[in-house]
Each structure stands twice: as structure tokens, then as C-alpha cells.
Write the C-alpha cells for this entry.
Amino acid sequence: MPSTLSLYLGKQFLKYVGVIFAILMTIVFLGDFIEALRRTADRDDITIMILLEMVTLRLPTLAMKLLPFIALFGGMLTFFRLSKTSELSVIRASGVSVWQFLFPSLFIAFAIGMLVLTVINPIAAAMQAQNDRMEAKYFETRSNLLTLSTNDLWLRQVDENGLSVIHARGAVNQGIDLTEVIIFQYDANDIFTGRIDASEATLRPGFWDLKNVVITGPDRPAERRDRLELPTSLTILQIQESFASPATLSFWDLPGFIATLEHAGFSGDRHRLHWYSLMAGPVLMLAMVLVAATFSLRSLRQGRTVLLVLGGIATGFVFYFMTDIIYALGLSGNLPIILSAWIPAVAITLFGLAMMFHLEDG
């Protein structure tokens, strides 16, 4: 196909994708801002500027979630407009196949997916991490925090007696059992009151079960015990949810974080699933253009425009809900993580290809 025609088709696709992007992001921004206003209706310490900052910080992450739908609706609008002006009819009459005039749109969709994966995602992750910090500051009172490094695990818990900072060399059983534990204890005024060393700590309902314990503190001799029950407000779910959200880690940082997570004895499935799904993003963008072309071209041939447009939209939403189900199967262990991440993108691609072959070649 002539390069001039390819450039023209590519520009048309970019233009209408931009239109859909602007419309959807405006709706998302207004909806998110209104919800933020509702949440802070009785708060005098949160200004409009703080709300605007938080909503803006969330926009890139929300845009990445909507990107497949933007490609779908943008592709459908592009092909409808080209057909309405009879441009596609002229192009087809000149001997250009459907695959040739689809190539510019497919190429651009894939390129956008790669740009988002390699450049936009790290920016969105940094902005989402800042938003999470602001959420914790203004909307939540988190009493339990967790930090991981390559060789250490730190837990912070607050209860009515004061603050306890727990340090461990490692964890097993998803954080239920800690090894080589040191607990630093502080009172309500953040004054150091004592230290507890233990070879092992097991999280039970309402307390830590410590073994081979040495208790020390200011102006007191060391006390040794075989076991000690230390009250705690922590639960295993709170510990696991204290990890950095996958959305706050860039594509480039996720492999190292997963390795650190698993080295510390925790499961990295949630973060690995997110990493693989990010890699599948460019393929998913390409697949959505194929689906858009399938329903757009069928409507022109069969004269059922409204019905097939609704079919295209319904396909997008069915895909969205099926993706959540497949991801849940992966996290539950019923599907390998890599399969659960790639199945949605591959399935919608095969669906689009099959429909296009049926439409073009009968």
C-alpha cells in the first residue's frame, strides 16, 4: 500500500483514538473528583487543591486500565468515519485488502502499547505511589506498616501499649513464621522501653508466639525464657496487604521486587501476574483494533450498524469481566500465573483474527 495512504490512515486512527481518550478521561476525571468531594464533605483539613492533586496523580493509572477500550472505541469510530465518507470503498476498489488498510492502525496500536509499557508505566507507577502516600495521610490511619529489603523484614505495629518495631531475617508460610526476630518496644510517648530477641516468631490470633526469648531493657538484667506470648493487633492479611501495590511499581522495578518478596518468604504471584499482564498490553491493544474492525466492517456489509456497534461494546465489557475471572483463577493457583496473564490478550487476538478471516475470505 502506498506510504501516503498508510500515513493518512494512521493519522485518522490517531485522531479518533485521541478524541475517545479525551472524552473518557474527562468523564473519569470528573467522576473521580466528585467522589473525592463526597469523601471529604465533612473534612476541613483537605483543600480543593489537595483533591485536584490526588485525582491528577491517579489519572495515568486509570488511563492505562482504559487503554484497551480506548483502542476499541477509537478503532470503531475511525472505520465508521472512513466508511461514511466512502473512503474505505474507494480504497477497497483500488485492490487494497483489508489487512493492508488495517496495518497502519495495528502498527500504531502496538506502538502505543510499547510506549505505555516502557515509558508511561514508570511515570504512572511513581504518581500512583505518591497518591497512595497522600491517601494514607489524609484518609487512613494505618497502624501496621511493612518494609522489605534484600535480607531483612521490618514490621511496625501500634496498639494501646505503644509502638513495637519488629525486625526479622526472613519469613516462611507467607509471613506467619519469622526467623531471627528482634522486637524494639516503645511506650505511647515513643520512649524506648525494651528489646525482645527470639529465634522464631509465629503469628497466632491476637499474639506472637516467640521461642528462645531474651528480654532486655533499660536498667534491667537480661531475662531468658523458652516461650513468650506477645500481644499484637496484626493479622496475616494485614501483613500481606502492606506490601507495595503492583500499580505503584514500574515495569522495570517489578522483577527485582518479586525476587526480594520471594526471598523473604512471601508469595510474589500478585506482582508477577501484574508484570506479565503489562507485557501482554501491546498485544491486547492490537487485538482490540482487530475486534473494532470486525464489528465496524460487518455493520457496513450487513446494514445493522447499531446492533453490531452494541455487539462490539458488549464484547469489550465481556472481555473485561472475563479477564478479572481469569486473573482470580491465576492468583488462586488454578492456572499458572503466566497463562492467566496472557490468556485474555491471546484469546481476544484469536477471536479478532478468526472473525476477520471469516469476513474477508468467507
